[in-house]
Write a structure and sequence with these properties.
By secondary structure, this protein is an alpha/beta fold. It has 2 domains: 3-311, ABC transporter type 1, transmembrane domain (ABC transporter transmembrane region fold), CATH 1.20.1560.10; 328-408 and 475-569, P-loop containing nucleotide triphosphate hydrolases (Rossmann fold). Helices cover 65% and strands 10% of the residues. The chain has 17 helices and 9 strands. The strands form 2 sheets. The protein has a 6-stranded mixed beta sheet, sandwiched between helices. A 3-stranded antiparallel beta sheet has the order 2-1-4, covered by helices on one side. Strand 6, helix 15 and strand 7 (512-516) form a beta-alpha-beta unit. The radius of gyration is 36 Å and the shape is elongated. The N and C termini lie far apart (80 Å). The structure holds adenosine-5'-diphosphate.
Length: 580
């Protein structure tokens, strides 16, 4: 499985080196102090080399202690930014359908909380913890070289038990950190849902219900945290105290035995006891191991799972096709979501260059699915889409289509940055031209910062009609041969709708327009009509021909004109009654 991080980053190695350097300086200092004690004990005074040694060790200790937090802080910031942007790129590459399947709340939680935890684990835990594991070995080497080889060998036994116990606990309690992470993910997803649907919840009186759902998700997180904490405290108590007693008691016994037998000086005996205390460093890390280590490892596991979601085929290199020569052709096209029932079932259609086609049909008939396949978002399961000569996959379709959806997606950046999303090299003149094309030039004239005007988060400073017109402007600026529109005016007022229809009518004849609409009253704008039902095309052809031919469209239009007549009649009656 691909891992999010390498085994050890350069900074982690540096932190390990600095920590080991600090431990060596401390051990050296303790031994020098022990030797100094012996000299005083014998009534001698240390020479200059001893003083220089002590000063050097102190300096080395201060330097490495000062550098470690600086290196860690610097590294954390860089790693967090790097991994967030890497994750965001990955979200973009797996495509919107996979993002929805993975859970948007969960993915936001991953980019924020999980990245923070895993970076904390990498930069402030893994380095010092690896150093802490290496420290006892280093101290044993110092004891063997400068104090007493036999004591070093005997102390090796309790020291070797530390990694065995730490690994044992990790194996036993790894699952609880995973449960904690999952509970956190559910809480974030619930919160995101609530934020998105604030209006709806308020209108439908669902706020107390949502409050309860968030409350129970929070309670689950609290329970998992308490579980982790309880285990943490238990481990600290058991390991910390038992190892402290074991190591200190063995070293004190060794010091007493070796000094009384004359194999060790009293000063070095003291040094041995103090050094054995320093060997407890890995045990002190067991506490943070449960907080940062376990949650960090669970976070990394989840992040690695997300990274393993395969890239969408639309991210591949597109082929060069010519949709402005023959048009767009669909043959026996099938598509489905998650291998379930066919949402598109053997579709055959032709879209001549510059044609305007309306796709109509009841809800759930596959209209939006067809648009998704044509824009390269959903991969077809059978059939072929081609330009008359060459077949096109998702990447080629994505490169040749521009899309305007029901709800415009705008960002809190400037107007220009929003428009340039599909055409990064567009000049200011081109931006102004396209803004005028969607009839937003007078609005632009009122903006104090002109093209640099920020649009507010999600285009919050714009009305629905303005936002949709800018979405159309962005699609037009991309200058793709095929323009796909999914009910672009369904949520708009009459004037905004009229403006958008006019802008589309004025488009040059090289752009092929395919629009999903449920408004039969707009059909006059289209040359061709496709009627879909249950994933199939049940009628298609020139509009003039279809409206006169018996079938779904003629029936639906008759139905519409009858209802309009009834409405007008009842309106007139109401007016008459009003007058009376
Ligand atoms: P229309 O646009 O005509 O209302 P859709 O293309 O949205 O219809 O839906 C066609 C079929 O595909 C429906 O049965 C619908 O339930 C299913 N469908 C649409 N979107 C998804 C999705 N994201 N995941 C699973 N099934 C979907």
């Amino acid at each position: 499985m691909r891992r999010l991080f390498g085994i050890l980053s350069a900074t982690t190695v540096m932190v390990v080196a600095l920590r080991i350097f600090a431990a060596a300086a401390t051990a050296g200092l303790v031994i020098l102090l022990g030797q100094g004690f012996d000299l005083f004990y014998r009534g001698e005074s240390p020479d200059t080399r001893w003083y220089i040694g002590v000063a050097g060790e102190l300096l080395a200790l201060a330097l490495s202690t000062f550098l470690v937090p600086v290196v860690i802080a610097h590294d954390s910031q860089q790693l967090t930014a790097y991994h967030r942007s890497k994750l965001l790129k990955h979200y973009l590459s797996i495509g919107p359908l996979a993002v929805r399947r993975a859970g948007e709340g969960e993915l936001v939680h991953s980019a924020m909380d999980l990245v923070e935890r895993s970076v904390k684990f990498r930069s402030s835990f893994l380095g010092p913890a690896s150093a802490a594991v290496a420290t006892p070995v280093l101290i044993l080497v110092f004891i063997a070289l400068f104090i007493d080889p036999l004591s070093a060998i005997l102390l090796l036994i309790p020291t070797a038990l530390v990694p065995v116990i730490v690994l044992g606990f990790q194996k036993r309690y790894g699952g609880s950190a995973g449960e904690y992470r999952r509970a956190q993910g559910i809480l974030s997803a619930t919160f995101l849902d609530a934020l998105r649907s604030l209006n709806m919840l308020k209108l439908n009186g669902g706020s107390s219900w949502m409050g309860e759902t968030i409350g129970s998700a929070t309670e689950r997180v609290r329970q998992q945290v308490m579980k982790l904490l309880a285990r943490n405290q238990l481990i600290l108590l058991v390991i910390d105290s038992s190892f402290a007693v074991l190591l200190l008691a063995s070293s004190a016994a060794l010091a007493w035995w070796r000094t009384s037998s004359g194999a060790m000086s009293p000063g070095l005996g003291f040094a041995l006891i103090i050094l054995s205390y320093l060997m407890l460093a890995p045990v002190n890390y067991v506490g943070s191991f449960f907080y940062i280590g376990m949650t960090g490892r669970a976070a990394e596991k989840k992040l690695a799972e997300i990274q393993d979601i395969p890239m969408h085929p639309s991210m591949a290199n597109p082929l060069t096709v010519n949709l402005s020569q023959n048009g767009l052709f669909i043959e026996d096209l099938c598509a489905s979501y998650n291998n379930a029932d066919l949402a598109l079932n053997k579709i055959n259609l032709q879209f001549p260059v510059g044609s305007r086609t309306a796709i109509v049909g009841p809800s759930g008939s596959g209209k939006s699915t067809l648009i998704r396949v044509l824009q390269g978002q959903l991969q077809s399961s059978a059939g072929i889409i081609h330009d008359g000569r060459q077949a096109m996959g998702p990447a080629t379709l994505k490169a040749n289509t521009a899309v305007v959806e029901q709800q415009a997606t705008l960002f809190g950046v400037s107007l220009a940055a929003n428009l340039r999303l599909g055409a990064p090299n567009a000049t200011d003149e081109q931006l102004r031209a396209v803004i005028s094309q969607v009839r937003m030039d007078s609005w632009l004239a009122d903006q104090p910062l002109g093209l640099d005007q920020p649009l507010g988060e999600g285009g919050a400073r714009l009305s629905g009609g303005q936002a949709q017109r800018l979405a159309l402007a962005r699609a037009l600026l991309a200058q793709r041969p095929v323009l796909l529109l999914d009910e672009p005016t369904s949520a708009l007022d009459v004037h905004s709708e009229a403006d958008i229809r006019q802008s589309l009518r004025e488009l040059g004849s090289s752009t092929t327009i395919i629009t999903v609409t449920h408004r039969l009253g707009l059909l006059a704008d289209f040359d061709y009509v496709v009627v879909m039902d249950q994933g199939r095309v049940i009628q298609s052809g020139p509009r003039e021909q279809l409206v006169n031919q018996d079938g779904y469209l003629k029936g639906a239009l008759n139905d519409l004109s009858q209802r309009t007549a009834q409405l007008q009649a009842s309106g007139l009656r109401a007016l008459g009654e009003g007058k009376a």
